[in-house]
């Protein structure tokens, strides 16, 4: 039988590890998104120097930069400037999926035990049941809602155990319309009155509206349907 003191000590260690990881993420967010320690123009110059491999290089570099909280709209706009609206959209979506994979893996490794310890066994099991049923659309919906960091959300999804296939599929579906919008705006930066720029704005607005409506309905469903909180397989 496991000693209760040992269990409590292990729980405290997991929660402390989660808190340290959250502090690290907040520090990265401040340095990159607020203080702007990464020079995006310099990154763009390095990408150009790779020639024909530039799209693949940008996917890898942008995925890593996104995981350390370089704002996604800036990365997508740079993709549009470098590669145009069509190829640039695929590059942007590929990078967004790469960020989701990196952040989710790190979140799962560093924060999964802490998140479960913080929630407690019963709540953790109920959350697992929710993720099994609705994890994919939670990822899609988060990508649609404006103003929410995709990287921070991916770290959180990873810590709460969202399966990798849901992260990949949800990131692809959810990032496609918004990725096009930001990429197209970057591609049309020298022609702000072009049809492409207007199309990008329309897509962005529609995506934001759908995201807000879906998030609101999802929250209401979570609060008003207690049967959804039962663990999977319970009688």
UniProtKB/TrEMBL annotation:
Spans through the membrane: 20-43, 55-76, 82-106, 196-215
GO cellular component terms, semicolon-separated: plasma membrane
Main location: membrane
Domain VTT stretches: 70-187
Record keywords: Cell membrane, Membrane, Transmembrane, Transmembrane helix
Topological type in the membrane: Multi-pass membrane protein
Protein name as it appears in the record: TVP38/TMEM64 family membrane protein
Species of provenance: Mycobacterium basiliense
């Amino acid at each position: 039988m496991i000693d209760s003191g040992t269990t409590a000590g292990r729980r405290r260690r997991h929660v402390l590890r989660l808190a340290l990881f959250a502090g690290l993420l907040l520090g990265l967010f401040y340095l990159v998104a607020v203080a702007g320690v990464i020079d995006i123009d310099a990154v763009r110059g390095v990408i150009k120097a790779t020639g024909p491999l530039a799209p693949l290089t940008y996917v890898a570099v942008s995925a890593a930069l996104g995981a350390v909280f370089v704002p996604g709209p800036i990365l997508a706009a740079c993709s549009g400037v470098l590669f145009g609206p069509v190829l640039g959209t695929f590059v942007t979506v590929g990078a967004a999926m790469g960020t989701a994979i990196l952040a989710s893996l790190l979140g799962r490794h560093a924060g999964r035990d802490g998140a479960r310890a913080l929630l407690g066994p019963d709540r953790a099991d109920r959350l697992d049941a929710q993720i099994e049923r609705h994890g994919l659309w939670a990822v899609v919906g988060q990508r649609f809602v404006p103003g929410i960091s995709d990287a921070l959300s991916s770290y959180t999804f990873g810590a709460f155990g969202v399966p990798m296939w849901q992260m990949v599929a949800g990131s692809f579906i959810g990032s496609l319309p918004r990725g096009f919008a930001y990429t197209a705006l970057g591609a049309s930066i020298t022609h702000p009155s072009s049809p492409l720029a207007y199309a990008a704005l329309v897509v962005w607005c529609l995506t934001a509206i759908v995201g807000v409506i879906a998030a609101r309905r999802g929250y209401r469903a979570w609060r008003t349907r207690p049967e959804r909180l039962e663990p999977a397989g319970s009688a």
